[in-house]
Amino acid sequence: MTLGGCRVKKRQGLPVSASGTLQARPGLGGQRENYVTTDQPELPETLDVIAVGAHPDDVEIAVGGTLASMVRRGLRVGIVDLTDGEPTPLSPGPEVRLEEARNAAEVLGVQVRETLALPNRRLFDGFEERIALAKVFRRYRPKMVMGIADKTPMASPDHWQASQITDAAVFYSRLTKWDELFENLPVHRITSQIWYPLGFQNLSLPEGGGRFISDISDTLDVKLESIRVYKTQFPPTKQRVFELVESQNRLLGVTAGFKAGEMLISTSALGIRDVFATLCGGDQSSS
Fold first, then answer.
1. What's the sign of the alpha-carbon dihedral 145, 253, 62, 270?
2. Whole-model pTM over 0.90
3. 35 falls within a domain
């Protein structure tokens, strides 16, 4: 997204020129004092949640139902793909894949989707990669960030690198005295970070502060529709992918008393103020 214009922070009592630089004014003894502001980019409307994936379709496969549910509850949600996912065997090029990503975002209802210019198949956790993602966090100022939980054996190693980049970018987003690296974007502290498992073909559970199941009973169909948009990735010969995703989501949902669910992992311990009300749905005592 191209950000237009610059916003100047005015200091009370000092005149500002049309160019955005504070003008000089006479000082004591007839000398002039110079005052200069640091221009900050004009920021877009904030997002409540940003979900990060290595490639277009990662987020849809893992947490598409949760994001669709959040949008229905009135939250502003964004997706960041670290790469455009290209090349891939059946895609004619990045333009087609990006169009699929845009269409999938529309199916889920998310308000923003950005694709960073990091290389697919050669994605590595590094300083510049961390800065690139942290800039997105500083621009959109989300309260929550969702990222990949762990390695995905027998699948792309980009997923593990994306996980590390996301963790670091959450930290970098709040660090002060780095204005020159962040194009003067304001510091932003993210309130909550959530991990999502992406490896569906093993039974191991990633570590974390606490696992829980997000109810996607009403949005499972929307999630599956958003995945089907990626026709270059999931042609009819890969129908097994949809069966795998749906069966796992239904299994996870049933374990928590829902029709369908997605597993999420908190990076910190989850606390409960009222155990009875939380686990019993607020029912009053029978006495």
1. positive
2. no
3. no
